[in-house]
Amino acid sequence: VDQTATVTTTLEDSWFWDPENNVSSTSSSSKKDDNESPSSGTELTTIPLEAPASESEIIERLRRQLNETVQQLKKQQLENALLNEQLVQVGRENRELNENIEELDRQHEVVLENLVTGKRELQEKCTALEVQAKHSTDELEAQLGELQRRFERLEQSYTQSCQENVKLQTETEKLTTELERIVCENVEAVAALDGQLNEMRRERTELNESYKTLQKENEELRLKVVEEPFETVTKVGEDEEVILLRTTIDDLTQRLEDACNERDNLQKLTAELDRSDHIGRLERDIGELQNELRSVIIDNSVQLEAKEKEYDEKLAAMRQENQTLRESITTTENRAAGDEFDSRLHELVRKLFDLDLTQLDELEERLHTLKDADSKLLALEKKMIDSSKEINFLKAENSRIQHDKDTLNADLMQYEKECSSLMKNNDHLIAEIENLKCNKLETINENAEDSIVVLEKQLEDSHKINRSLEEEYREINCKLEEALEEKEELLTKVALLEGNQSEQKLHSRELEQALSIARADKDTLERQLEDARLSERQHTEELNAELESVRAQLTTINEDHAALVHKLQQLQQSSTDNLHTWESKLEALQGELKAKEIELEQVRESTVSSQHSDTELEEVRNRLQSELTAAQEQYQMELEKQKQTIDSLAQQKADLVQLVTTKHNESVQYHAEIQRLNQLLNEHNEQASQPCSECVSLREKVQDYERLSDQIQFLREKSDILTTNLMTEQTNQRLALQEKQELLEQKNSLQRDLDRLRQHLMEIEEAHTQETVELQQRYDETRGKLASLEEEVKKSTNALTSASIRANQQAETLQTQYQLLLQQRDELNAKLSSADDRDQKNQASLTNLQCALEQFQMNKERDIELATVNIRKDLERARSREEQLRGDLKLFQQQLNDAKNGLLAAARISDQLEISQVTVASLKNELAKRDEKYAALEHRLQETEASQADKVEKMLVKNLVIGYVVAPNASDKQQIMKLISTVLTMDQAECIKVGLNRSQGGGSGWFNSILGHASGPEGSAGNYNKESLTEAFVKFLEKESAPRATDSSSLLNIVAPVGSQHAAQAAAPLSTASTSAPASSGGNMATEIKPILLPEAMLQQTTFQPARSSSSILKDILSDS
């Protein structure tokens, strides 16, 4: 027995777990590779043979070792509980993170849906705006075409009226010359008639004297007849002579009267013939004038078509020039075009100032050139607006890049925080691995194995996350470099635009100076036009004065006519009854004269109405002048506003440059920080790349972190998609605003062109009406003069005929010739009436022409009013559209603000995650404090257990006693008795008393069963002598390597009731497992023998056998026996 005891003690001392040699064994086992083959665990160890020791020492050593294993198992249990708690916390954090990520996904999906809907609405609105813009442009182009056609018609009518006025002026000049010639002829005829009248009076006086002499002779003859009645024969002869004389006198008087009548008739006939010739000439002149008018109209139409083509070519050239100017603005590099434009503008101003300002045509051309200069200045202002828009767009791009940079910085901060948290977790895991190395566990349960697998997965996940973070870090560095390059490009663009803006400012100042000069020139031209109009008014006043002089002449002629009538009445007193007929005819002629005077009064009234129309035109001109001044004031206000906007843009540019410099410095700092973090990350990767025995548990964590990083990457990609969608929406919105601004500018240009055309049309109408009024006045004056001259001729002829009739009253012999002359007079009167009818027809045609002109003017004014009404309606529609677009922009800005709020909410959630990480760290610190408290309690527990080391476990002794009583044979009882003696630490005397030393060599104990179950003491001793210890150990290993049923209970369940008071919450499931341990003691009677001792190679393996209780040990001993 002593020999077997010494052998067992040497074996137990050789391969049982030794606390002194544990460090070396665990360190050697930790240095082995995880991928080592399982055959390495079967290597044999050299067993040194020591001197035999006493049984009590062996028991004490075993007991000491058992206590140490119990303590280590308690520590391992606590560490496992801590690891379980950590795993639970990590799982909880993972669930919270997954929930937060899902919430972020939902929020991002909602934001994406909102953005998609907003984008669709914006696209629909943009299409609607494009359609409306197209419609408006078509309408404006149609209106512009109509205005151009109206302008062409007005220009054609103006040219026709000017030509007609020129023709009428020439006709009036011809008529005045003819009237002067007729007046001269009439004066000469009056003088000749006066001479003839004097001669006829003289002849009449001679005839009266001869008649008186004849009467005297007749009286004398009668006296002679009375005195000498007796001389009958002589008397009869004298009577016959007297009769003959009387008949001769009567014949002479008759012939004289006939001669006078013939002379008067001939004079009348000559006058009528002259008048008919004059009327024929006038009719021929009118026909020629009409033919010339038709030819001039045809020529004017041809000229107007040529002018129309020329204007179209000019308009196309102006449009092309406008397009070239726009292209030069957009590129901002074509300086030559600007210099050429400046030279052209200066040349135009020089040409304008070199004009001769004395002629109205040149003044009008100068006004047109000034208007063209104004339009070019407006185009340059449009260029300035476009450049300011481009600067605003670059500012928006810079702000977008700055926002991207801020988001990248926020992502970097988040990644830095994640890296720091990963590094902390890695350090924590390394510390846990070191603790696991230092604990030197003999066995470990299946839960611990599962936790190791989970930790390995986490380590792999952490490695994956680390790699993904490195890739993201590289991508972020690339993006940051690209952002810096874009920023530099934008800075260069901003510098170029600033230079261009400064040049454009100088150019605009020069143009403003030129504009001021042009406006001054325009004012001088307007003054000169006013002077010209004043001169025209003076000319009209002079014409009125001439009209008054003509009227005075008419009054004098009327006075002369009254005098002639008085003379005629005197002659009628001495005339015969035949002259009464002539007086009645004279009265008829006077009635016609009154009708002519009535017509003259009507003509005068028409002249008065034309004067009223002149006043109305003057009022219209004043109103247009006031509108022009108001437009100039508005243009000055707009120019001041543009200057203010340019100053504000310069201030914004300075602020932008300052902001860009600050952001550049910040980006340099961030780049340095990123390089430092790269170095730290490389160092960390180098440290992580070193081999580690416990990397499996860390890989699992790394895999978890990689999964989280993938989710974060997915969220980042979603955020990038959202940012791209936002940028596209912003670009679409800018394009819509730009198109709207272009439409407004086109509308303003069309409005300016319309105002210019309207003003030009009013000027043309004013000039045309003035010229028509003047021509009408001149025509009326000439007609009045012609009528007065005709009346004077009639009066003079009537006076001469009446005088000749009075002188030849006694000439009865010429009665027959007088009747013939009367017939001729009737024929001439018929011709005169036909000529009067023709004259009336000509007057009716003139009145129709005047009515047509008035109707044309009325239609033109109505068309202008309709055009103004349509333009105002278009303006109101454009304003309403602008208001709708502003409302839409407000809605879109609100949606963008909502999206920004969603992103801020995501940022707040990330901040909450960081706060949760901080709270986890604080909870870990509290857990470390609890661990320290638990270690102190465990130390106290160990002290109490050490104080109770001499006590025997009641359950073990009870089981041994029951087994001893129930044992079927003596050998089993002897084995149980030996075990009881070892448990109760019996000495040699007590063993002798019990009967254990009766047969020294027949100890078939539990160790002999290990060595091969010998049948007797001789066999056992012989077998032991024959077989070496190594062969026995090989047999033991083969037996242990055989498969057997594993118990689910662990060594942790033994100490669970002891530690339940201190860690009830952390190890709640363990208490339930501890209650089931005693119950299993009665049901595992038939299990195979499980060794207490393990070789060194088994400790090096990562897998462990399940824990064993005292009842299982007793069952193994009983089964061996």
From TrEMBL:
Its main location: Golgi. Residues 18-29 have a biased composition (Low complexity). Keywords: Coiled coil, Golgi apparatus, Receptor. It is found in: Golgi apparatus. GO terms for molecular function: small GTPase binding. It comes from the Eukaryota. The keyword Transferase does not apply. One of its GO terms (biological process) is endoplasmic reticulum to Golgi vesicle-mediated transport. Residues 18-45 are annotated as: Disordered. Residues 947-997 form the GRIP domain. GO terms for cellular component: Golgi apparatus. Residues 56-164, 190-224, 249-335, 360-838, 920-947 form a coiled coil. Signal peptide: none annotated. This is Putative thyroid receptor-interacting protein 11. It comes from Anopheles marajoara.
